[in-house]
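anyone seen this seq b4? input:
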Amino acid sequence: MRYLLSFVFMGALSVASMAQAYSYMPRQLSGLYVGVMAGANMIEGKSGPRSPVFKNEATTADDTGLNAGLALGFKVGDFRLAGEVGINTKADLADYQFESMMYSAQLYYEIPVTRRIMPYFNVGIGHYSGTIKADPGISSDISGMAWNVGGGLTFALNRRVSLDLGYRYTDMGDKTFKDSEDEDVSFESTQHLIYLGWRYVF
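predicted toks r here
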């Protein structure tokens, strides 16, 4: 019994020491950083009113694909400003497909709950370019402005390296494309991204 109590005491002391060291990690460095991110992206597309080729009806559909991105930014205290590029894999939306690439500027604010765990919020604005493909024989390029809001948690591994677990909502606005009979079809897209990111501050 004495040995068991000693073991429990030493274990509790070790955990307390580790927790203290963990909580007193120096603040993350400010400066230039690079990052990568990857996640699952649910894209919702609304099209219509539709031409005779599209059965004269509006359609709403969604599909989940993959997203991958790169970031180059600058961190100052609790704020980060970054330029990001993201690629979305092809989404099957009813009787058409949509794939896109996004270029954006993002502003992040981290709430320093501890120096290891920091909730954050972000807003961004950017430009996207995409391709819509459908039968019969439709392939149309669309592009435009987009905005987003999001948030998540930052987990600092040390003063330079951190992981992000986040969510981002993106609105890509309302655009039009041509069907096979050269009729205009409206298209509106929104995206829900859940992602894991990695960052390194130089």
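The longest strand covers residues 138-156. The longest helix spans residues 2-23. kinda curious what u guys think
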